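To fix ideas, we reproduce below a protein record of this kind.
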Amino acid sequence: MTGKSEAAPPHRRGLPARELDRPSDLPGDAPVRRWVAEALTELRVPWDAAGLERAFERGNVVDGEGGPVGADTPSGGLPRLFIHRDVADEGRAPTRLGVVARTEQWIAIHKPSGIATMPRGEYVARSAVVIMRRQLGTDDVVPAHRLDRLTSGVLLLITSQSARGAYQSLFAQRLVRKRYRALTSLPPTRLRAACRRGHEVGLHLVKERGSLTVSVLPGKEPNARTRLTYVGERTPGQRSGGERGSGARVGEWILEPTTGYTHQLRATLAHLGAPIVGDPLYPEVVPMSDPRWGRGLALHAEYLSFTDPLTGRLVDLTVAPPWDT
């Protein structure tokens, strides 16, 4: 980004345009086509001549006000240049997400497993933020916090620019009560007994650069704390108070984290010998061809509670896990 101005073109279908830095040796009479090609190369964004021409034909290359720029336009007359990206995974993206509650400042949604919180990598249209920007018709939607892509449950999104700091700080200052539900492989007998009435587990977790997972470092001061309550055994597909399903027996848990470390719940349960059903990362990373990457994780953000910083009212948000519906 050039940082010359805060002004930027309007979002397009929920996504911002990306600013392209002007190459330092670009002459003023060089066509914009060259500017775009050199900037994309510097950013290591794959492109070819045909794709570049399509970007201009579709009006994806724009100035600071969002107006389309022609490929042969001289670069010297443009202070800034942006490009809108096409979303390759559009066809697999859901068009609407369920709303749990809404005010003028925020909206709580039910995020399904497999949908990222923020657009990133191949999960652009398949992200809660982009889906809700399109669903609500506003580009002001940003997350107050995040859920892992494979984790389902209640997600709080902010819809008012002026209120972003107030709600995001609730999570940063750990003023939000969270409760999760999980299904795991049957835990060791000793762990079941210890957690029948609730038990706090503290671990020191560390995530090294480039690693997909976090590691537990024994003997160090805990930086991740979770209260675990073992609910009991059940069969996948069995409702909490209803009929039995079929398949191997699993353990059901209530999880209440008091910190928010990356993969905290997944790593904690795997470390204790009860990995979450369907987890492709813990206790070991499986190949991308493994069906667990697309099947869904049995980890669900069931409940959020906080005092609204703007109204002073207590907010309780609940979404039942899929195995209870």
Remarks:
- Residues 1-5, 241-246 have pLDDT under 50 and may be disordered.
- The two ends are 46 Å apart (CA to CA).
